[in-house]
Amino acid sequence: MKYIWLAIGVFAMSLMIFLWFGYDSQNLQNTILVLNGLMLILSLPCSLFAIPVVVLANYYLEINPVSTEGIYLNTFFLFILGFMQWFWVIRVWSPIEPQLQMLDLLTGKSK
Hints:
- The chain is mainly α.
- It has one domain.
- The chain has helices spanning 2-20, 26-42, 50-60, 68-93; strands at 103-104, 109-110.
- Strands 1-2 form a two-stranded antiparallel ribbon.
- Strand 1 and strand 2 (109-110) form a beta hairpin.
- Helix 3 (50-60) runs antiparallel to helix 4 (68-93).
């Protein structure tokens, strides 16, 4: 799942670069919005923090979530949240190494 999210995130960020350089197409915006939706789904539950940010940006800053500025905000924020979840928080949720060291008191060895 981590690598699927990473591929989608990098693809969305690279398409956002095309959008930033002036290739402003409705199909490109729709593609980035679909990728944002996939990033939102794949990075649940951390991506739920993006919803209040989008709502507050729409209310206070008047940034429409489907406009070009909203796409920048959505993509960047979802990428940061997903990156934190998959590469930082997931180590705490399911660590590879054991949390506690098991002691074998009969033989005097620890595992």
